[in-house]
Each structure stands twice: as C-alpha cells, then as structure tokens.
Design brief:
This protein is α+β, with helices and mostly antiparallel strands and 211 residues long. Helices cover 28% and strands 34% of the residues. The protein has one domain: Immunoglobulin-like (Sandwich). The protein is built from four helices and 13 strands. Strands 2, 4, 6, 7, 8, 10, 11 and 13 form an eight-stranded mixed sheet that branches. A five-stranded mixed sheet has the order 5-9-3-1-12. A hairpin with a 2-residue loop joins β7 and β8. α1 (2-21) packs antiparallel against α4 (182-210). The radius of gyration is 23 Å and the shape is elongated.
Length: 211
C-alpha cells in the first residue's frame, strides 16, 4: 500500500510541477460567487497573476452580463491604466448595459519600462453593480479572442491567458456550486489507473498463500 501511495504521489507531483512550469497567466474574478439583495451593490475585482517573463502592454476587452439583473454603477479600468506606464493610449469601445467595453495600450516604446516595473500580479478592474431584479447572471469576458478577451504582451503579441468569471445571484436567485477542480479529477483518474493493478496483485498473493 505504501508503494501505491508513493507512486500516486510522485505521478501527481510530476503533473503538478509540469503544470506550474507551463502555466499561462490567469485572470480571476473575485468573488467568483456572490449574492446580493435587490437594491444592494455587488463588487467584482478582476486581477491577473503569473505574468512571469511577460508583460501586459495592451488589452481589448468586453465584459458581458445580464443588464436586466444587474445595473453598472461605478468602477472600471482605473487600476489597469495605472499599470500601463505614463500616458497610455485609451481607445473608445462599446459601453452599454450588459456590455462594458475597454481598450487601451501603453506607448510603443514602453515594453522595456513595463518589463522592469510591472508586477507579476495586479488588479485590473473593479466593478460595482446594483441588483435590479431576482435572478442569476454570469459576469465575464465575451468569447471573441480579438475584441472581447484580447490581452497583449511583449512586442504586441497576444497572450494566452486562462480566464475565469463570476456568478452573481440577486434576490431569490442562486448561483450553482462549481464542479470539483481539475486537480481533484486528475487524482481520481490516477487512483483508477493504479488501484486495479494493486488489487489484482493482492488477490494473486492471497491465492498463493492459501495454496
């Protein structure tokens, strides 16, 4: 049994180590689940982490949600603009209830400055939205890689980013609890792969002892 556990531990550690080494930057929405009453304010903070040797030099993003359930009240791109160096170039983007658009970039010569001064992890956006009616809505980025969720790094190349989202329940609405994490599923898969062989060996050993 000890060999089985040791084997599972080594394989899991190898997978996790490989995942960390090859991980993409991650954009998180916090809290990922929340409930507010009608008339109350939901606050959602959007952050990036794990830039490593990369930078965030520009973005073209659209945040989508159900505008009949939540009403945008305040907040936006103030935090991320402060990370783009001096005098970032801010573009006009669609901005309406249920579709909050933001685009901006550092100046062309700012890559080296950002690489030397930008943190590995920082706050991008902070939103305040008011609950309008009973219901549930997802708050996250649109699907278009060019115009809804485009994060740009060094040399104006788009970054590959793992992007989360948030669920906001208002009044009688209720967010569903997310599925178990992928690491938990990997562990179950590994156990399923190792345990049958272990059980088979135990059975053979038991039969040999009886004979």
């Amino acid at each position: 049994m000890k060999k089985l556990l040791a084997g599972l531990g080594l394989v899991s550690l190898a997978l996790l180590s490989g995942g960390v080494a090859q991980a993409n930057p991650v954009v998180t929405f916090l809290p990922s689940l929340q409930h507010v009453n009608i008339g109350d304010t939901a606050t959602i903070d959007v952050s990036i982490s794990g830039l490593g040797a990369e930078i965030l030099s520009a973005y073209d993003l659209n945040f989508h949600y159900n505008g009949s359930i939540l009403h945008w009240s305040a907040g936006g791109d103030g935090p991320i603009l402060a990370q783009l160096g001096s005098s970032p170039f801010v573009l006009n983007d669609p901005f309406s209830e249920g579709n909050l658009g933001y685009s901006a970039s550092a100046t062309y010569l700012d890559d080296e400055f950002l690489k030397a001064n930008q943190a590995d992890s920082f706050l991008l956006f902070s939103f305040q939205l008011i609950g309008q009616t009973d219901g549930v809505t997802n708050f996250g980025l649109g699907a278009d890689l060019d115009f809804d969720r485009n994060f740009v790094g060094l040399n104006a190349n788009s970054l590959t980013v793992d992007i989360g989202s948030a669920c906001v329940a208002v009044g009688t609405g209720k967010c569903e609890i997310p599925e178990p994490s992928s690491y938990g599923l990997v562990g179950l898969a590994l156990a399923g792969a190792f345990i049958p062989g272990f059980v088979s060996r135990r059975r053979r050993t038991g039969l040999a002892l009886k004979s």
